[in-house]
Specification:
heterotrimer; A alpha/beta (204); B alpha/beta (205); C alpha+beta (419); A: alpha/beta; 5-stranded mixed beta sheet; two-stranded antiparallel ribbon; 34% strand; extended; C: alpha+beta; 4-stranded antiparallel beta sheet; 45% helix; 13% strand; disordered N terminus
Amino acid sequence: MTRLAAAVPGIQLELVPNGSPGNPASLVVDPAQAVAAAVFLRDDPGLLLDHVSNVTGVDWLDTVLKETTRVKQVIDGVEREVEQTTERRKPGYLEAVYHLFSMARKQGPVVLRQRTANRVDKVHVASLTPVFRGAEFQEREVFDLFGIVFDGHPDLRRLLMWDEFQDHPMRKDYVEPDDYEYEPTPHDEVLDKARRHYPVGATP
Amino acid sequence: MDEGLRSELSKQGVFTTTLEELYNWGRRSSVWPLNFGLACCAIEMIAASMARFDIARFGAEVFRPSPRQADLMIVAGTVTKKMAPQVVRLFNQMPEPKYVIAMGACAISGGPFKQGYNVLKGIDRYLPVDVHIPGCPPRPEALLHALMTLQQKIAAQRLTGPERPPHARDDAPAEFPVPQYGPYDLNPPHNPEVWQPAAVVRDEA
Amino acid sequence: MKPELDEDALIGALSTGEVEPEGLVAGPAPALATLPPPRGFELTPKSPAASAADGEVLEVAMGPHHPSTHGVFRMDVVLDGERVLRLKPVFGYLHRNHEKIAERTTYLASMPYTDRLDYFCSLTNNWAYALAVERLAGIGVPERAEYLRVITAELTRLLNHSCLIGFLLHDMGTMGTPLMYAFREREKILDLFEALTGARMMCNYMRFGGCRVDAPAGWLDQVRQVVDDFPRFLEEFENLITTNEILLARSQGVGVLPAALAISASVTGPMLRASGVDYDLRKVDGYGFYPRFEFRVPLGDHGDVYDRYMVRVLEMRESLHILHQALRDIPDGPVLDPKAKLRNFRPKPGEAYGRLEAPKGELGFYLISDGGPNPYRYRVRPPSLINLTILEDMCRGHTVADAVVILGSVDIVLGEVDR
């Protein structure tokens, strides 16, 4: 990581720890320097990470952080300790995750992450397809299912859904078309759906 | 013709039949399926045509790549919404009389993938299905059984009278509307002439 | 009500459309994107002005219903006569939302869905997923279970490679004869799977921390018998086809994939090794008990279709070698880690990437846990999809008939390509 910081001037790096034991931490890289970082990782003789195994997206929703603080207030002339809750909205983001391995040195993985600014309009990250050809279809898939726009991708079209489709189905807040009507043993969400379709007392 | 007379004649070495029976016998003994695999079930369909199960015993080993030469569409596997227009179009291109076997849970109802956003919840939303085969995937024996069921169905078809099969009637639809890709779903989501949602009355406290 | 007839659909095979001069020359194929959904075979003549070569340039959508595309795969091919000028694969006709469904269900409930990814090799899919979850939660696997995993995975490899070669030769026009031989052997292996797991294709056998059930009495002897018989089949098969003149003519020098391009495009599996790159995850990662077994990794020289065929044949022989050792050494004992939790399984927050050498290439599962019963993110790294990245590079300049053979040699299964 220090070598990477030395090789690419002005790079912003952040190391994200992994909660799962025995699994590698990941490296968050700013989209502006992502291509330079990737070229370094690929060509550095000590790393030679030439095999991009997996490219995927992750959708992190907007989270509402509730902070509870105890403050002393004077109420009715008596000083009391009162719990005060402040809500802070933390904007969510989309994340493109790359798993890099080295075929030459048979080592890895290095997990590289790029994050978008938010989930709505600033969804651009840099495409690594010019560096690793193997990312081509996977980045298209992430564009299709998550809506992350990869700048610099040679052929960014939808991969799995049809071209007229307008949503990004793998996002966590995607609402699928309500098209299954009958469930023999409804439960949970399906039960709600069944209730909406067949109101109590309605005759066929 | 009287059954007793007929069996008496056959004992004398005289074989009698009717035009209808002859016609149905010919049709049911040479059902040509469309070479049309969608997903996992297609492998079992191939296995059914291979040496151990040998679908040729039932006259149905001639898998045709072109819908123009096929009588039977075995919808073998998950029909996705992206694939559904093509399936309907292929069925429209098949000449009458034509039959559909929905093979496997996915083709019947979406099966394990029913909750997927891109999965059609059963091909019977667009096409009239003759035989359903449950299973995920159904064994090749199940496909053979379905073929025999279809053969019985063909043999029982009357060519005249009010119970004529669709291909002998003028008012039956010759083509089924091909769904279009919409911005969120297929348009229309199902063909109301073929399929309506099951009527369920819920009584809940 | 009679619906309006689609005239083009009725004409069927050939339909002549309007001439669109743009679309062929440059840009990310707007013409293809705006085409109506394909019919079985669709031809749209392009204006001669747009073509670089002499004669007429055709744009053909091969698939999604095409007998040679191994399922619902579609290739938009631009042809100059019989030569392929450009080829764009189109996916998604079997996109079954595996990942979305898996993010809504518990970890264990995704296991049956992994069977249906690559429906030839359900047991290696199971293993890859179990491996990722075991890595995420830090679960150990008993020794006998590891041996059973190796045995089932290598049987799967035998099954997949023999069927693939059958399909490949089917694409070359053998009209099913090698395929019938291959399926005869497949049925024997499927009988073993059925005895072990209860299902022919969708085995659903692995669990996190072992396998679901132990092998029934006498099962290992049956495996031994099949394994002992298999070389006879392989020799018969090879006598039939390896030096067959037509196979040599159709496959040597066709679809050459240089090693540098293969590495850059993340190609894995027998395709990569046919190009001469020594990268077998059984050796590299050494997952399971593979370091205990002695086996060699066959490599190709030229990276053409014939090498891909030959690498697979040799891999089957090495698989038999592994199977002999595994059947000799398999110990008694439990098959499921007693500490493994099947119900109410909630791994700690974190992420893990588990991968193994599936018959088609590197199959990976990437899981992010947020501490809940469902994975927060569940991702399958499909080898079939990524191996198709270089399909265009391999097919360019060859004829359509060769493109079909090259596609056959990539070894794709659409359930895994589209998921």
